[in-house]
Amino acid sequence: MKKLGRLTEYVITVLIILSINFFLPRMMPGDPFLFLSGDQGEQISAYSDEQIRQYKACYGLDQPIFRSYLSYLADLFRGRLGQSLYFNESVGHIVLRRLPWTVFLVCGAILFSTVLGTALGSLSAFYRNRLLDNVLYGFMMFFSEIPAFLIGLFFLFVFAASLGLFPLSGALTSFSPDRSVVQVLKDIIHHAVLPVAALSLTRLGGMYLLVRNIMISIIPKAYMRTARAKGLSRYRIFIRHGLRNALLPLTTRIFMSLGTLVGGAVLVENVFAYPGLGLMISQAVMVHDYPLIQGIFLVITLLVLSANLMSEVLYRVLDPRVKDGEG
Amino acid sequence: MNRFTKNLHYFSPTGKAGLIILSLFFLMAVFSARLTTHPHDVSSGKALMPPCFDHVLGTDDIGVDLWSQLVYGARISLLVGFLTAGISGCFGALVGMFAGYTGGWMDRFFMRIIDGMMVLPDLPVMIVLAAFFGPGLAQVILVLSLFSWVFTARIVRSRVLVIKQKEYVIYARISGAGPVYLMRKHLFPEVLPLVWVSMIRLAGKAIVAEAGLSFLGLGDPTSRSWGLIIYHATRFPGIYYTRFWTWWLLYPFLALSGMVLALAFVCRDLETLADPRMNQKISGGV
User: Phi, psi (5° rounding) for residue A175?
Assistant: First the structure.
């Protein structure tokens, strides 16, 4: 019963998102046909009224709003996201081309921040109140407060602009054909280091604190002493007996902050001109490309929501005590 | 004032530094006109001048003095931050008290909304909303408030649920106290410190969000907020191949980071002051 409640909650959220997604862009000021006809910002009315009417009919913009809402929903269920007004290409294609880059950034940041946060958090708990702990704690507190895109800018200043260690923008070096797979992979990683690092650094603090606090509460427990008395190695005690406790809260933390992380990724992509969905959506807003904004917004939110839904299933696997009802 | 100085003792060194930085920014915002010699919106020198005696922080691509822009930008950041915090703090506190006190389906209804909004990726929604409301300071504040109240509401609600069970509240209710009296006399004073703290947290979030939106080109184009300066600078072709970024981009970046950090440090100290368990709860929460 309760399970059904959670599911309806998700369905309602999705419906609300779909409706927002449909109505908001239509109420935006500006007109796509003015932008289609001139350079950005200039208003050259190259289209006659007759032509504009024709185009509106072509894109279905002359229909009553309710009719187009229904056909929008019907199209969505068939997997059609519409046609981009500015790029004159199917939105689905554009999104599919850009999505892997964003997913790559987000997953990289999750992986990196979780692994590093866990390691540093355990280390800090182990050396509690010693110099290492204090230094790490201060460092984390400092960096976890700065938003990812400012850290990204900072990295751009230092590592790309001043030192020239990393490329300034993009995800791949263009105009360099005939490269082996390994070289291309290296190139991709080289481009992704700074964005991923910027995204990870803001999340690191939360992960670190979580693991540190859990470990601090676990270390004095009796079973830890027993494990040591049994003569298990320190490493094994830490991983098998200690860190296991952090598994559940860590998963929750990862999924709960996914929305914020994606938001951060949107901004960081704009800092590094990284060709993901975030860069695309800001370009689409600039030219009032309704279907494209809608498509990107929809794909991002639905992905985050389905990840959250998945996390509830994962939860039950990780912790059998969680029965339907608690959640 | 006496109470203030007494409370100051509880502040950590970072919290004190945060307070000092914040008050400097406040002074900057209040005395903008006195602190600047050049206009912040009109060109007053050659384009892209490096920092010199006349233009302390240099000029941007159309020759507008950067120091003036920064000083006036402090106004926008503070205005957005504290107005958003005020609106969403008040609304969130009301909703939280109401939902927590009445319970039942009202509570469930609001919790559904709050839970739904918590998982939503806020920035994409804000981008779409900002694009729809159009660029403008009032719109930005409205959009940010629309998203921020849930944080206050959640904290307040969970606290009200606890207070509601306390004996003195139950006794008051048995003695015939109505809901309005109870909220005003017992619940509100208890949750007030939490509301203040969450409002400062929200102010920080709002300042960051405004900078983010401006950085995407969705801020008020007539204002010169720090995010917008960064936006214009990063859109300048080849900014990193020149030395221009060392003043044009660096100083707004420093101002923004300083403000965010100061707010965060002050907030952390206030959190421990308002509720010593709160920091642990946040960091260790399951």
Answer: 55, 40
Q: Flag if A297 and B128 touch (Cβ within 8 Å).
A: yes
Superfamily in which the B14-285 domain is placed by CATH: MetI-like (1.10.3720.10)
Predicted model pTM = 0.82
Contacts of A67 (CB under 8 A, 6+ apart): none
Q: Which helix (H) or strand (E) holds B97?
A: helix B66-102
What is the Cα–Cα distance from B227 to A28, expressed in whole angstroms? Answer: 22
- Contact (CB<8Å) B128/A25: yes
- Nearest Cα of chain A lies from the Cα of B180 at a distance, in angstroms, of 31
Domain ranges for chain A, please list them: 96-289
Residue A252 sits at the chain B interface (C-beta within 8 Å): yes
Complex confidence, ipTM: 0.81
Chain B interface includes A254 (CB < 8 A): no
A272-288 pLDDT per residue, tens: 888 989 999 888 888 87
Residues of chain B neighbouring A20 (CB-CB closer than 8 A): 125, 128
Query: How does pLDDT run across B186-240, given as a tens digit for each residue?
Result: 888 888 888 988 998 899 889 988 888 888 888 777 777 888 888 888 877 777 7
CATH architecture of the domain with range A96-289: Orthogonal Bundle (1.10)
